[in-house]
Amino acid sequence: MPPRPSIAPLRALLTPLRLLQAALVVASLVALGVLAAREPATTGVEVERRDPAPGIDEIRVQVAGAVHSPGVVIARPGERVADAIARAGGVTPEADTAAINLARRVLDQDQVVVPKIGAGASRLLDLNRATQAQLEALPGIGAARATAILAARAQAPFRSSDELVERGLISAAVYAQVRDLVGVAVGDR
After folding, report:
1. Which of 54, 173, 45, 59 is nearest to 112 (CA)?
2. Which of 46, 85, 169, 174 makes a 20 to 30 Å CA pair with 154?
3. Residues 6 or more apart whose Cβ sits within 8 Å of residue 188
4. Bridge-partner residues for 61, per DSSP?
5. What are the sequence ranges of the domains in the chain?
6. Residue 67 near residue 91 (C-beta atoms within 8 A)
7. Which of 149, 154, 144 is nearest to 169 (CA)?
8. pTM for this entry
9. Distance CA 183, CA 164 (A)
10. What confidence tens digit (pLDDT) does each residue in 47-84 have?
11. 149 near 135, Cβ under 8 Å?
């Protein structure tokens, strides 16, 4: 009969600490297996993915006056007055495009009026010649703002209507209401 192997070296390897470590490894592997086999948990909230509603990336601009197809046109954010006029069929031969700012960006609900030759100059209120009463008649401009505009004009004539905002006389929101109603005569710049 062959001699029996000694279990002493095996007992030296199987210390209580090593048995605990082995048990933890086996338990961790079982837990990972259970988690991997489970179906994903539901949160109870069902999310439906939809395309954005039409019109989110569109703005509507009314184009009137000396254009071929006046009416409301659909423009994209960042487009300019010239783009809105092109969407309205372009200008007619009697249009005075020098009386409007073709490079201005349009905003939702803007109205662009293309005047006929000879009609545009009288339509805009010249900031360097306007009276207190004429300024107060503008939307968003009351007595206090009109007085401030006149005082600023006394210090330095306006070179463009944009200076109303640049000089801090009116907010951008008020300027959006009056920008197509005011201007600066060419000789005043």
Report:
1. 59
2. 174
3. 126, 128, 129, 157, 158, 159
4. 73
5. 59-121, 124-188
6. yes
7. 149
8. 0.42
9. 10
10. 555 554 555 678 899 998 899 999 999 998 889 999 99
11. yes
